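Hi everyone, sorry if this is the wrong subforum. Our group has a chain we'd like a structural model of before ordering constructs, and none of us has done structure prediction before. Sequence below.
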Amino acid sequence: MNLALAPLRRQRSFAVDSVIVLSVAAALAHLVAAPSHYDWWPAAGVFFVVLGVAQLAYSCLILSGVRTDRFLLAGIWGTVGVILLYVASRTVGLPWTPPVPSHGTRWVAGRSIVPDGAKHVGPLDVFTLVAEVLMVVTLLGMLPGKLKTTALNRLMWIGLALWGAAVIGYIG
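Answer:
Right subforum, don't worry. Here is the predicted structure as C-alpha cells:
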C-alpha cells in the first residue's frame, strides 16, 4: 500500500454508507416510477423526477462529506414529509389529484380505507417506504444527543396526531 495516499483515504461510518445507499435506492425507485405517474398526471411525474434528483443530490452531498446537523435534519424532515405525503395518498387520497387508475390498471374498489380515495400499494411502494423509513432512523442516529431527542419528540407528536386523526376518522 502506498503510504503517501493513506492520509487521503477517510473511513466513512456504516451509518453514512447506509444513508447514501438508502437515499440512492429511494431516488432510483422514484425515477423508475416517474413515467407511469406522468402518464396518470403530468404534475405527479414531474414531482417524482424532482424528488428522485433531490434524493440523488442528497446522497452525493453526504458522500462528499456534508454532514452538518442542519443538513441531517433537512434529510430527516424532508424524508418524513415524503413519507407523510405517501401515506396520505394511499389512505385518504390527495384532494387536488385526478382519479387514480391504480398503477396503470383500472381502479379496484376496496383498496383503501376511504372508498374511492386512494391508490394501490405495490412492491415498489413498499421498497421505497422501507428505504425512506430506514434512512430517517439512520439519520436520527447520526444526530448529537440533544438534537436527536428533540427530533424524536417531534416525530412522536406527529405520530400521536396521526393516530388521533385516524381514531377520530374511524369513530366519526
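For your construct planning: Residues 103-117 have pLDDT under 50 and may be disordered. Residues 80 and 155 are 9 Å apart (CA to CA).
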